Amino acid sequence: MTSHATHLWRLLKWGRTLARYGALRGIERDPLTPIAVRRLARLARLGARVPRQPRYADAFQAIGPAAIKLGQTLATRPDLVGEAAASDLLRLQDALPPVPFAQIRLQIEQSFGRPLDALYSQFDEVPVGAASIAQVHRATTIEGRDVAVKVLRPGVIDQFSRDIQTYEWAAAHLEQLGGEVARLRPRLIIANFKRWTARELDLRREAASSSELAEAMQAEPGYTIPQIDWDRTSGRVLTMEWIDGIKIADRAAIVAAGHDTKAIAARLVNAFLRQAIAEGFFHADMHQGNLFVKANGDIVAIDFGIMGRIDRRARTWLAEILYGLITGNYRRVAEIHFEAQYVPAHHDVAEFATALRAVGEPMRGKPARELSVGGMLDGLFAITRDFDMQTQPHLLLLQKTMVMVEGVATALDPDINMWETSGPYVKEWLRSELGPEAKAADALIENWRTLQRLPDLVRRIEERYPARGAAPPPPPLPTVRLIGVGAGWKYATVALLATVAGAAGAVLLMTVA
Questions:
Q1: What count of Cα atoms within 13 Å lies in the side-chain half-sphere of residue 431?
Q2: Is 283 helix (H, G, I), strand (E, B) or coil?
Q3: 3-state secondary structure of 241
Q4: Over the stretch 209-235, which tens digit does the pLDDT of each residue have?
Q5: Which one of 285, 303, 386, 388 is the catalytic residue?
Q6: Secondary element (H or E) of residue 509
Q7: Segment 157-179, tens digit of pLDDT
Q8: Max CA distance (Å), the chain
Q9: How far apart are CA 63 and CA 395, in angstroms?
Q10: Nearest 5°: CA angle at 94, between 93 and 100?
Q11: Which of 183, 230, 242, 444 has its CA 20 to 30 A from that of 461?
C-alpha cells in the first residue's frame, strides 16, 4: 500500500507544476474553496513565475498521461473547475512525443509471441498519431490489407495505477472536508475516471466496443466504423481497418472535396443522438481528431476506448429534459428532475421550474450561432448548488460528449441550430417510446414475460410450502416469557440447562431399565 508521504510528495510535485502554469489561481480566489486547500495552493506557487493567463491544458499535459485524461474529464465540469478552466481543458487532444519504435516492436512481439514480420508484411516505424495511452502506426497485413495498429505505451498501465491511487487518496481527504466539496462527490468522480481508463488500457475492450457500436449503428446511414482484425488484436495491441479520409477538423479540405458541411454537421448530431438516446451506448470521445470524412461523404469514427452507457429509464428522462428545454416546457423538465431524484424532494417543483426558465429563456429567439448546448449545461450546473443537486457521475460522459459534438458541428456549420437539428429526432423517439402504441407493446411484452414465469413461481411456492405429511399438525404452544440475561450469564444459563437436561435423560434411562 502506498504511504501517505508518497501521496503527499506526488501531490506537491503536481501542485507545483499546476502553479507554474497559473492553474491554481481559480482555486485560491474561489470563496467556496476550503481554507486548507487555499493555503496549499498558495504554498505550491511560492517563488514561481505565474503567467497572467492560466494555461490549464498545458499544465495537465506537463504532468503526464493520467493527468491528461483527468483534465479531459474535468473539462465537462465547469461547476467544479470554472468555465474558463473547462474551456481551456477542451484543448487536451493527447498529443505527446512518440515512443521509440524498438519498444513498440517489442510490445507487439511479446503480445502475440511471434515476430513482427509474421504478422505484418509492412509496418511504418513513424506513427501517424501519439496519444497519452497509445500510439497508432500504419501497416499492411501478410494478406495484403491496409490496417491501423494501435499499441499501448510501455509502462503506461503501471503509471496510471500509481497516479490514480493518489487521486483516490486526495479525493477521499477532500470529501472529508464536507460542505460544497462533499456535494461535488470527488470520490465518485475519480471512481468513474478509474473505470473509464481501465477500459482504455485493455485494447480488447476497445475492440469489443467498436464491434458493438458498429452493430448498433447499421441503421444509421452515412456513419461508419472500421472493422476489427481480431487475429491481430490483444490487450496491448489493436489492429483495425485503415481509413482514408479527411479529418473533420479540416473544413477547408472538406469543402474543396465537394462535401456539404451543413449536411455532415447535422448527420453527426443525429448519429450522436441515436447512440445516446436510442441505443444507450455512445462513443464518448468524439473530438475532431477521432472523426473523418470519406470520399463518399460518410463520417468515420475511431478510438472507442471511452464509451458511455445509459439505461432505458434514464434515456427517457434525458430525452424529455432535452425536448422540454427545446419547447420551453420548464414545468415538465422540473418534474423529471424530481422523478429521477436528481433534486431532493424537500425543494419546490415550481421554484425549480422558474430556475430552469432562467437558463432556457435567454437562449430562445436568438440567432442560431448564439445558441449553445454547452451554454445550457453551464447554466444547469450553476443552479445545482441552490437546489442541493449532487453530481450524477453516470451523466458526466454524456455531458462531455454533448459539448464535444456541439463544438465539432459548429466548426463545420457555424449557423447550425442544435435545438432545431435535435428537436425532430428527440420528438420522434419520445413518440415511439412513450406513445400509446409503445405503452401497449410494453404491456404485452411484460404480461407475456410474467406468464412465462408463472410455472417457476408455482414450483417455488410448493418448495416453500410443501404438502402436509403423515404426522398430525403440532398443537399451539404457549408463549413463555424469557429471562433477560447479559452476555456473561448466557453461557452459564446454557450450561445449567444442559446439565439439567443431561440429568433428566439419565433418570429417564434408569427408569426404563
A1: 6
A2: strand
A3: strand
A4: 999 999 988 878 889 999 999 999 999
A5: 285
A6: helix 487-512
A7: 888 888 888 888 888 887 887 76
A8: 112
A9: 27
A10: 145
A11: 444
